Hints:
It contains 11 helices and 9 strands. The chain is globular. Helix 2 (75-93) links the parallel strand 3 and strand 4 (99-103). The longest helix has 19 residues, at 75-93. Helices cover 51% and strands 15% of the residues.
Amino acid sequence: MPTVLYSVENNISSIVLNRPEKLNAINDDLMNELKAALRKADEDPQSKVVVLRGAGRAFSSGFDISHPLPAGADSEYFRNMTIQEVGMLRDILELKKPIVCGVHGYAVGMGFGLMTACDIIIATDDVKIGTPEVRYGYSSTEWILPYTLGRNRAMEFFLTGDTMSGKEAAELGIVNRSVPAETFERELIKMARKLSLIPNIALLMNKAAINEFYRVNELKHYLDYLYDNCSIIFASKEFKTQHEMKSQMPLKEYFEKMNRPFRELEK
């Protein structure tokens, strides 16, 4: 079964993450198929706009961490892994056509990263958004947030691993708008159709102009920095200790153990 579905109708390309039984957790197959679908959408003459969403109960729960690390994984291994991960985000950012993202259920970890790389984001009011992976010793690569939130709010978000609802994210400007779950599909397609009515050259050139702003402001330099930053974290003793602990118990039990001190803090 393909992990990513692609179709085009009414000048709108639809890309669907298709591992619903895993809450669309990202593995190598999904990452490679997503890159291929993005290339196909960008080159498809029948398409003017791209919509990215997830099948089933969630947009994406982030990277699939249910598999053990390969023996001998070192900083170079993690640097190469990060290059692939950040490369996937850059593929979205550098798509010539506008891409609308619809998020529901969960958009956490790298699922949150995929979301923030898109041009316009429609979220359900109750979607869970954030970077909880930092609480388990993982690196966060959601690089766009400092531009959206400013330094201090981005710091809080990255360093605490807190999550928020779609409604809270809309108030902060992380997503364009949040809507009730029952109108989510309609509002997502409505936005894509609105964009498809714009003359194509205007869509392409206006998106290119905004992306050029980020390039001028050294976004590429920042992305290059992330490669080494993340590889240091993943090769650290602390990360390996966390990963060993995770491998010795069911994931649900591991997350419960790691999140318990944060819940107690809020009492």
